[in-house]
Design brief:
By secondary structure, the protein is α+β, with helices and mostly antiparallel strands. It contains 6 helices and 11 strands. 35% of the residues lie in helices and 25% in strands.
Length: 272
C-alpha cells in the first residue's frame, strides 16, 4: 500500500551497480539519486514515528479512560483515533481514509486538525461532521476521489451524543446487565457531498459502561466475515482488562485473516 522503508544499511548505488553496470557519469548521477533516496526514506521514518506517537495506547481522565491499538500494515496509514477533553466535554473520533500510503496518512493528519478546530466552537457531533466535511471539500474538492468514514462522539456527564459517517457500528456494553449492543446509526461517508446533513444519536451511560470502536480492517478480509463477528466475540468475552481485551480481539481476527491486509485500529472507552 505504501513503499516499505528499506533497512538502514540499504545502498541504492551498490545495489544497482551490482545488478547492472554504470559508467562514471552514470555512477555520479546514481550517487545523487541514492542521496535523495536516503533523504526521502529518513523523512518517511520521521512521518511514521510522528503518526504512531499521535495514537496513544492509553489516556486517563477523571471521568473516563481510553485504550487504543493502531496496527498499520505499512509504514504510513489512513486510520486515526483520539479522545480529548474540552472544558467539561470529552470528544472522541475514529476515522478511516479510503486508500493507503503516504496520501492517506496526510489526509488523516488533516482530518485530525479539522476535528480539533471544529470541536472548539461546535456543540454536537453532527455539526462537527458537517463542518469537517464542508471544509475538507472546500480545500480538496471532490475530483480526487478522497473519501473517508468517521464516528464522532461527545460524552458529558452520563450522556453520549454521536454521529456516524459511514463507519462500522460501535459496540456499547451495559455494565449492569452485561448486554452488548450495536450503535446502529450511520449516514453518508465524508468527502462526497459538500452540504450533507448528519443525524445525531444519543445514549445514556453509567459507571463501568464500555464503548468499543474499530475500523473495518479488523474483520473485512477474513472468512469471519462481517461486523457481527466482532459483536459475538465481544458478547462472549468478559472484559476485565481493556488492554488484554483489545490485544485478544486483534489476535483472534489476525489468526483467521492469516495476518491483516488492511490497517487495523481499535478504541475502547470505559466510563468511571
Amino acid at each position: 500500500m505504501v513503499c516499505k522503508i528499506k533497512p538502514k544499511n540499504f545502498d541504492l548505488t551498490k545495489f544497482l551497480n551490482k545488478e547492472i553496470g554504470f559508467n562514471s557519469v552514470g555512477g555520479m548521477k546514481l550517487k545523487a539519486l541514492n542521496k535523495e533516496y536516503k533523504k526521502t526514506q529518513n523523512e518517511l521514518r520521521l512521518a511514521t514515528s510522528l503518526q504512531k506517537s499521535l495514537m496513544k495506547d492509553q489516556k486517563f481522565f477523571s471521568k473516563l479512560d481510553m485504550y487504543g491499538r493502531y496496527l498499520p500494515i505499512t509504514d504510513l496509514a489512513g486510520d486515526m483515533y483520539d479522545l480529548v477533553k474540552v472544558n467539561d466535554n470529552y470528544w472522541f473520533i475514529i476515522s478511516d481514509v479510503m486508500g493507503h500510503g503516504i496520501s492517506a496518512s496526510m489526509i488523516s493528519f488533516m482530518i485530525k486538525a479539522l476535528f480539533f478546530q471544529s470541536i472548539q466552537y461546535h456543540k454536537t457531533p453532527d455539526k462537527v461532521l458537517e463542518d469537517i466535511n464542508k471544509t475538507f471539500i472546500e480545500m480538496m474538492g471532490t475530483d480526487n476521489n478522497i473519501i473517508f468514514s468517521a464516528f464522532i462522539g461527545l460524552i458529558n456527564e452520563n450522556n453520549l451524543l454521536y454521529s456516524n459517517a459511514g463507519h462500522p457500528y460501535p459496540l456499547l456494553i451495559d455494565s449492569t446487565t452485561n448486554e452488548t449492543k450495536l450503535i446502529k446509526n450511520t449516514d453518508t461517508i465524508l468527502g462526497i457531498f459538500k452540504d450533507i446533513k448528519y443525524n445525531l444519536g444519543q445514549a445514556k451511560l453509567k459507571k463501568d459502561d464500555l464503548l468499543i470502536l474499530f475500523t473495518d480492517g479488523l474483520y473485512e478480509n477474513s472468512y469471519l466475515g462481517d461486523i457481527s463477528k466482532v459483536y459475538h466475540y465481544t458478547k462472549n468475552y468478559n472484559i476485565k482488562d481493556p488492554d488484554k481485551y483489545l490485544d485478544d480481539l486483534i489476535n483472534h481476527f489476525k489468526k483467521y485473516n492469516n495476518n491483516f491486509t488492511d490497517d487495523v485500529t481499535t478504541m475502547l472507552i470505559k466510563i468511571k
